Predict the structure.
Amino acid sequence: MSLDSDPYHYFRIEARELIEQLTQGLLSLDDGEGGAQAVPELFRYAHTLKGAARVVGQVRMAEMAHAVEDALSSYREAGQSLPADSIREFLRLVGQMAEQLDALDTPPPPPEEAPSEEGAPALALPEAPTSEVVRVDLARLDTLLEGLSEAVVQLGGLRGAVESLGQAQYGAGSLIEQLSAPVVSNGSPAERARWLSRVLSTAEGLRSVLVKAGRQLGGGLGQVESELARLRDGAHTLRLVPAQTLFGPLELAARDAAASLGRQVEMHAEGGDIQIDGHVLAAVRQALVHVVRNAVDHGVEPPEERRALGKPPTGRFSLKVQRRGGRVLFRCEDDGRGVDLGRVRQVAVQRGLVSASEADALDEQGLFGLLFQPGFSTARTITEVSGRGVGLDVVRDMVLRLKGEVHMTSRPGLGSCLTLEVPLTLASLEMLGVEAGGQRLLVPLEALSGAIHLPAEAVSWTGARACISHEGEALPFLPLVDALGGTSSAQRPRTWSVLVLDAGTAGRAAVGVEKLLGISRRVSRPLPATVPNLPLVAGASFDEQGLPLLLLDAAGLVRRVQAGSSGGVPQVKPSRRHLILVVDDSVTTRMLEKSILEAAGYQVELAASGEEGFEKARRGGHSLAIVDVEMPGISGLELTRRIRATPSLQALPVLMVSSLATDEDKRRGREAGVSAYIVKGEFQQHGFLDTVARLTASGRRAE
């Protein structure tokens, strides 16, 4: 990244580290650690931050850093520690600098664009994600460099194998010349004997050279493969960040919220040495800040109230980070008043979320679920900390995005506990390839507790539900294709390959597949922003031919199996096999839509451009065309216009699935002749398949 494209890139890295060091140092002083000897170090951090801010023109942050530096100067010169009552003011200033830095991370709104040729404002480019910077342990980097050096040495050793192959090539040429020599047919018996001896000698030499090259290649490639695997694993560890980096910002958020509300709180944290993927940690950090503030505001009572209840005046918030296989748990607990479920029912009814009878029928977990709804708040007044209904919905969105789990419990008068469970990493994973319903899919190996072969009669069916017996436990079972929403019940294999999945708090379940394709380490990539969120898909990887393979979300899959059948996903069972044309320039989007449609019983034909899509549509046989708007060459709108202008295609339904979401975009689609319009950001599998079923039923197959 160049400074021209991002002039604050290096400043953000340095400033974030300096602010974190200031925060940790001040919190340690507040806990009675460090004393006077810590003040000069804090002074240097503030001084460095001031200079860096001035260089990039961040005047406001430079002024705040100067104020901190100036205030620390007298204590540094006198060799004194900071008074306890001044630390809060220092933390407030550091918090304001952190807010300034956060604002710098957020790109400014784009300038107003001139109207496009059609008169509508031009679309702004999507916001680019900010990069996550991690600090690297030099020992890890040294290990990586050693592995790279070793791999280079091993590759150099393969030069001997290349030379041997060159000799083999020369020997093969010589052998061909000898075999085609005239003496074969015209020579005397003695000449033919000498010729045969030379041929055998050349062939033996060729065989010897090839054997030598094989040994060199076999051993050398094995060593190189081993070193590269070590390099890959070492590079993966560079992405990992200790959970300890969460503790300072969260403690600062807890103290800031308590000070704003006139309360007292102390934070205790465990598990700071657990290493977590930097991207995961960044998402969790934002969510946990809301959890902390929510706990202080809604949970921890004022000091007087706590004394009256026989509690210490200072409330307690604890964060425990634990690793569980390939996932990490964040257990957040407070000793406050707990959740008032009666108040939750009252607010839910007042806001029309549920009727009074529905509210009465909700159990404890159902009521907790309401707290995660956007805009929901039980606060009676709006404060600096809460009351606007923004908090736990952020937690829910983060958990859904990472394919994690959230669980909440509460005890009246004793406090609440909220547990987040998310993947440890989004990068390199061991995966098991499987085949189900003709599709190749990936399952995270960390979630696999067993793989067995069972005869069909070992599966006990009760309606849409089934179970198997495994190690003395009855586990819910579904064929994987059924769990994904397909219709494979008419073609059951004689023997199931069964995967036993353990998804932590989600429990255990078993799925049946047709084939096991082997274990490999692959890079899991998040789905593109333009691809709709799919409930059972955690990401994607690519096979050797570059085709995307879907990585399944183990926790979501276990819940689906536990629910039986497809858990509410519509089972579209067309009376005939409709052929659907999918036109999209994104290979990932094409393959995802193909997977959904084929699992629902449709036939699918793919096109990567508007031109290719139109040529395939003109051949006929399609019941529906699903098109994207923005594609190279002719757009989806122009493709739709051409379809409508072609007499044989005029009755072909066209479903537009696009990231363009304005009313003007939808109006252009209607004017072009689309039959239905789905916004990718609002895409839901249930609604998508309903729309497909409606359009294929209402239209006619193009001839």
